[in-house]
Amino acid sequence: MNVLNKLHESRSPALRLLVGLLLLTLVFAGGVAVTSHKTVSLTVDGTQLRVATMKSRVIDVVEENGYTVGERDDLYPAADSTVADADSIVLRRSRPLQISLDGQNSTEVWTTAATVQEALAQLSMTDTAPAAASRGSRLPLAGMSLPVVSAKNVQLNDGGKVSTVRLAAPTVGALLEAAGVPLEQRDTVVPTASSPVVDGMRIDVTRVRIQKVTAQVPLPPPSNRIEDPTLNQSRQVVEDPGAPGLQDVTFAVAAVNGVETGRLPVANVVLSPARQAVLRVGAKPGTEVPPVSQGHVWDALAGCESGGNWAINTGNGYYGGVQFDQNTWERQGGLRYAQRADLATREEQIAIAEVTRARQGWGAWPTCSARLGSS
Predict the structure, then answer these.
(1) Using CA of residue 349, residue 353, residue 356, residue 358, what is the dihedral sign?
(2) Can you give the pTM of this predicted structure?
(3) pLDDT tens digits for 95-107?
């Protein structure tokens, strides 16, 4: 027979009362233990922790987790406040800052801010900017030196748009960032981006942009050149002009201050192919044509002699732009190009005219050369 059975069967009232009191004590103690255990949120300098505790005061929970609270620290709720399950505790520890404005002597201040940005706001210095640290830099608990600069008035010429701005920034580049117009791509700035900002200075920004643009453009037909030994060298005949195709061409477009300065094709996709052109070019031996010199003079002479018509044949015995008679044309070597001057090209006629002028002078065209002042 076990002990419980013995107690149950016992007829002693005193023993039964003693056992009841013992069981009640055990139940109450367990309930108190369950009630004392809680989980709370502890945030220290912006870092949140979930901690389990049986402490009942805020300060006890904080110290239990290894933190001390100084007189300059911020603690919420207050240190002696009672903690319940799921409560939140926030501790912002203070730290010293050595603040110097525009290079002047530094002053020590205390702040519970976690970042440079928060510290400037807490110290009512939002119109200043850190000279070296970034606004998002975290402040070490041991403190740090924080040189700041005050707002300055500057004249900003941003791609031709001129305005006056007042901002706090240590450098030209940082000022442009603060103004919401940072340097991008191949932008340039005068003074340089690393130059310190001085009150009353002028900043000139040149915006250089390169962007890709796609456009549909004709695709020129390829040319098939066929040499023809029966055709004079200065002549060509289009057997088939071909037909252009269509393509998508991607250009790299350069612009300075919004004005396009050039574009280069960087890729293309053929939408419809071009039909090949066929060109027959002269290759007849002995029909070489020297380069034309003083072409404007010969054009002026032809304008006087024939109205500028190099293929004229009126039946009056004179042919072509500068009105060769047949005898002169043949004597000066014109037959190597064509049977008559009007059947020769402008360049071929000028070649024979140069030979004629070398032998006879401008007097071969007495009326028009005199009218044009040639001699």
Answers:
(1) negative
(2) 0.58
(3) 999 999 999 999 9
